[in-house]
Amino acid sequence: MGTYHSLESLPDDVFDDFPPDVKRAFFEHGRAIAALRLYKHRGWNDHAVRFQFDRSARRLAGALEQFEHDEFNPPLF
User: What is the DSSP secondary structure assignment for residue 12, as one 8-state letter?
Assistant: First the structure.
């Protein structure tokens, strides 16, 4: 199962059922994780990258919450 640290342990086909906005949020969050990891590895100041990471994490959480809401509360008509 994937964690908030990494999405590498998720199977490849898990993203097929997600709508495009959730796929995009996962992609952006993955890029933010990679950038934060690079900055920490090189010992650089990660303030701006951490801001990008936090923003992408909020977008991903919001997209997943909206996806979950839409799945459990389908339109009636």
Answer: G
